[in-house]
Specification:
Oligomer: heterodimer
Structural class of chain A: mainly alpha
Mean pLDDT of chain B: 90
Helix content of chain A: over 70%
Radius of gyration of chain A: 19 Å
Number of helices of chain A: 11
Strand content of chain B: 15-25%
Number of domains of chain B: 2
Strand order of the largest sheet of chain A: 1-2
CATH architecture of chain A: Orthogonal Bundle
CATH architecture of the largest domain in chain B: 3-Layer(aba) Sandwich
Shape of chain B: elongated
Low-confidence stretches of chain B: 14-29
Order of helices and strands of chain A: HHHHEEHHHHHHH
Shape of chain A: globular
CATH topology of chain A: ABC transporter involved in vitamin B12 uptake, BtuC
Helix content of chain B: 40-55%
Largest sheet of chain B: 7 strands, mixed
Number of domains of chain A: 1
Number of helices of chain B: 12
Distance between the termini of chain A: 42 Å
Strand content of chain A: under 5%
Largest interface: A-B, 38 and 35 residues
Structural class of chain B: alpha/beta
Strand order of the largest sheet of chain B: 7-6-8-9-10-13-14
Mean pLDDT of chain A: 89
Number of strands of chain B: 14
Low-confidence stretches of chain A: none
Number of strands of chain A: 2
């Protein structure tokens, strides 16, 4: 039982981190039907910029602000350099996806030159390592990640489901053409999706750096895990995607803890075909909301 | 269009064939017995493992400056030619060709990484250029034809033997193994398994993770439940730090031991106090007088002693090479074959790295110069890694 509680707590915190990345994927998908494989690089840019600014100024708040600004800026670059011109030319979705992947490689290479290749770090927000919850240990910084991101997710939910302009965003996700005909400014919504997603990614990166360190090459693995989580949960619905992240996080720890850590990666990757076969729209998308 | 492309390709191919020939003839005629002796230094100076490559280069530079200040080989100075392989095997191959054919270096020092060292060794071996590998520890580097290849660093099997022996000396009998799924992590698994068995200890569980995994508590729980009384973690610095934090958080006070992958600054930055008491294999012992003197020299020259473990290995490899050249004498010091033979004759050359009295010896059948005395067990404390 103690093992179960310990594993579950770790899985929930890790899963929420994956969920934040999945959420970023999903916000962009919902507002543009584009899969953005530069998503993991928003995380990287947040972590690296934060660590760099903190390293030179020793000012935590400035580092956090810088990280968020850099995340939004890099998301803006992806949108204006690749997505907007391609959307204007009515390029197919696959072309745009490939463009984001190409940009991800460019961002990584530029980051290596700008930041240097070494792994960088940030001190945790509160020092002290970990706390005991129900007899199980959880890292304080892991809890800080949740404490800071979950309220933001709630705000995002309120915006999407309780405001008029949130309805516009969701309308674009369901049918871009129809929304456009009804006067929704779809391009502006797509741009907003990218910027919010850049902000969230950079925040996750900044909060993760005290746990993991930050390297210029860390982006891709977040893109992959975040993508799997988003598909498992339901990529068209940001909160289903977030739930998908939690499922992936729990799966990882249960497989590592009860079966063997040799199978962890296999199990996570297997989730993708299983989800696509059983519930292509995702496990957490309400049936009524699914298109036939 | 198509024919002209063909011509260009053909011309390029011909040029490629002829170039090495031209280079060979140039080399034998250029040497006047007084010009500087060119030595190639190749490693990752700018990409992911630059901490290690730059430190190696700094060590080589210190050795060369010292050697030239002492008059070089009867007045002939050594001139270093650097090539940045960015940790990439393809670039290492190009670099080795460039150093051997264009720069016409007499010998090559490098590469710090295993993958790039394997690539470079193939080139230098084919061209008959003596090469000393200062840092890369994997046995694979020396698995091919190694007539012209020498290694001055301890190998992975030596590190692991010392680590396991250390665990045994402390009375830890049930060993848990934790490793990542990168080339580095996997390289240690078989060696650790066989060494642990050989020394009569018990390997109770093996757990793995992907580099950068957010939390290693599940792995820690399994190792704890398997009854491990020490954990060997074949991990890189950041992940090793996370495991130290996770075991600390669980309240599991278990001794942790690792290889040189832990020796990066990030280990202490992330782990802080939770990392204290972690053991690792290293090459540098500051408690021996030569080590302390080296640290002072590095501080004076580069205003840093970061990654000194790798700097000292670069320094010793270069010193072995310069010693061999001195024995050849000014007339033949640029003759690759004579230098190769002289390196092979190196016997009991004292090194700055390693334990008190560690030395390098080569022989016709033995191009692995180091022994287990080149490995030092270091402990992480409030002031970083230091000798027990």
């Amino acid at each position: 039982m103690e093992t179960f509680i310990q594993l579950t707590l770790v899985g929930l915190t890790t899963g929420t981190i994956y969920g934040i990345v999945a959420l970023g994927f999903s916000i962009i998908y919902a507002s543009s039907s584009i899969l953005n494989f530069a998503q993991g690089d928003f995380v990287m840019v947040g972590g690296m910029t934060g660590a760099l600014i903190y390293g030179t100024t020793q000012n935590y708040l400035l580092a956090a602000l810088g990280a968020l600004v850099a995340g939004v800026a890099i998301a803006g670059v992806v949108y204006f350099a690749a997505v907007k011109p391609l959307l204007a030319r009515r390029a197919s979705a696959i072309v745009i996806v490939m463009a984001t992947l190409a940009l991800a490689i460019v961002i990584e290479a530029v980051a290596q030159h700008l930041f240097g290749p070494s792994i960088r770090h940030l001190p945790p927000i509160v020092s002290g390592g970990s706390v005991q919850i129900l007899g199980a240990a959880v890292g304080i910084q892991n809890l800080m990640v949740l404490a800071i991101t979950i309220p933001l997710v709630v705000v995002l939910w309120l915006y999407l489901y309780r405001t008029r302009s949130g309805l516009d965003v969701r309308a674009v996700g369901v049918d871009r053409g129809a929304a456009e005909l009804l006067g929704v400014r779809t391009r502006r919504i797509t741009m907003g999706g990218f910027l919010v997603s850049g902000l969230l990614g950079a925040l996750a990166g900044f909060l993760l750096t005290p746990i993991l360190g930050a390297t210029p090459t860390m982006g891709l693995s977040y893109s992959v895990t975040g993508f799997i989580a988003a598909v498992v949960g339901g990529i068209a619905n940001p909160f289903a995607a977030l739930a998908g992240g939690v499922v992936v996080g729990l799966l990882e720890v249960y497989v590592s803890g009860y079966i063997s850590s040799s199978f962890t990666e296999v199990a996570v990757f297997l989730m993708l075909p299983i989800a696509l076969l059983l519930r292509p729209d995702g496990f957490f998308v309400p049936k009524v909301a699914r298109k036939r | 269009m198509r024919t002209s492309t063909k011509k260009v390709v053909l011309a390029a191919a011909l040029a490629g064939l002829l170039l090495p020939l031209g280079a060979c003839s140039a080399q034998s005629s250029a040497d006047d017995g007084t010009s500087p002796i060119k030595v190639g230094v190749i490693g990752d100076f700018s990409a992911g493992s630059a901490d290690m490559g730059v430190a190696m280069r700094q060590g080589v530079e210190m050795a060369a400056d010292e050697f030239n200040a002492d008059g070089g080989v009867d007045g002939r100075e050594v001139e270093l030619v650097f090539y940045d392989d960015e940790g990439d095997a393809q670039k290492a191959t190009t670099g080795a060709q460039h150093l051997a054919d264009r720069e016409k270096v007499t010998a090559v020092l490098g590469n710090p990484n295993t993958g790039t060292a394997i690539a470079t060794v193939k080139v230098t071996q084919a061209r008959g250029v003596p090469q000393i590998v200062p840092i890369a520890q994997s046995p694979e580097v020396m698995e091919g034809d190694t007539e012209y290849t020498f290694r001055t660093s301890a190998t992975n099997p030596m590190d692991i033997a010392v680590l396991v022996e250390y665990a045994k000396s402390q009375g830890w009998e049930k060993i848990g193994l934790l490793h990542d799924t990168s080339a580095y992590g996997l390289s240690g698994v078989d060696l650790i398994e066989s060494q642990v068995a050989e020394s009569g200890l018990d390997l109770v569980a093996t757990e793995r993770y992907e580099v950068g995994a957010v939390d290693l508590t599940p792995q820690a729980l399994k190792l704890k439940n398997a009854g491990a009384d020490a954990v060997v973690m074949w991990s890189l610095g950041a992940d090793g730090a996370r495991f130290a934090l996770n075991t600390d958080g669980m309240g599991w006070d278990v001794p942790l031991l690792g290889g040189r992958g832990l020796l990066f600054n990030i280990f202490g930055e992330l782990a802080g106090a939770a990392g204290e008491g972690t053991y690792a294999t290293g090459g540098f012992d500051i408690t021996k007088p030569e080590g302390a003197a080296f640290a002072e020299m590095m501080q004076d020259t580069f205003s840093t002693t970061d990654s000194i473990d790798f700097a000292v290995l670069g320094y010793d490899a270069a010193s072995v090479l310069f010693d061999a050249m001195t024995r050849v004498g000014a007339d033949g010091a640029t003759d690759r074959d004579k230098v190769r033979d002289a390196i092979e004759e190196t016997t009991d050359f004292p090194t700055v790295h390693g334990q008190e009295g560690a030395s390098i010896s080569f022989g016709p059948d033995d191009h692995e110069g180091a022994s287990e005395s080149a490995v030092v067990v270091v402990t992480y404390g409030p002031d970083g890694w230091s000798t027990n």
